[in-house]
Amino acid sequence: MKRIFAAASILLACAGQASATASIGCAAADDRASFDLTIGNVPVLAVVGAEIDAAGETWSLAGNERSIRVGQAFETPGEMRIDFTDANVEAVVAEIRLFKAAEGDDAAMAGTLKIAGKGAWAVTCVGP
Fold first, then answer.
1. What is d(CA 81, CA 101) in angstroms, rounded to the nearest whole number?
2. Could you report the per-residue pLDDT of 58-106, keeping only the tens digit for each?
3. pTM of the model as a whole
4. Where does the pLDDT of residue 32 fall: very low under 50, low under 70, confident under 90, or very high at 90 and above?
5. Confidence check: pLDDT of 5 > 60
6. How far apart are the C-alpha atoms of 116 and 71, rounded to whole Å?
């Protein structure tokens, strides 16, 4: 019985690691703005990684000089909304609004990126 439990635990752990995260990359048509998101594979939208490049500057969850935090994140089957705040959670720095559509094997995702005091861009995306 212990062997079966151990084998099942190993299989579940391996299966979870294989699909633990997914990546989404989005960019403006003129390449003046882009972002990469790493999303955790859990029942709610969990942004576990983000790097935003716009207006010659970079913001990141990784803790660079323009460190950001996830303020809030929401997802439905057709939409994703993420707000990033400054490191002290005093102001919203970036807003991402994405819209998704899928039919059979075809899928599309696009939306907007808005950076406070810097600008707003239409983006198209590649990812899950």
1. 15
2. 999 987 778 999 999 999 989 999 999 999 999 999 999 999 999 998 8
3. 0.80
4. very high
5. no
6. 14
In terms of residues, how long is the chain? 128
Neighbouring-strand partners of residue 8? none
Distance CA 84, CA 35 (A): 12
Q: Give me the amino acid identity at 127.
A: G
Question: Mean pLDDT for the chain?
Answer: 86
- Bridge partners of 79, per DSSP, are 76, 99
Residues with Cβ within 8 Å of 21's Cβ and at least 6 positions away in sequence, in order, are 38, 39, 40, 41, 48, 49
Report how far residue 68's alpha carbon sits from residue 6's, in angstroms, rounded to the nearest whole number. Answer: 40
Closest CA to 73 of 108, 122, 39: 39
Backbone torsions φ then ψ of 7, nearest 5 degrees: -65, -45
Neighbouring CB atoms inside 10 A of 115's CB total: 21
Q: How many Å apart are CA 58 and CA 61, to the nearest integer? A: 10
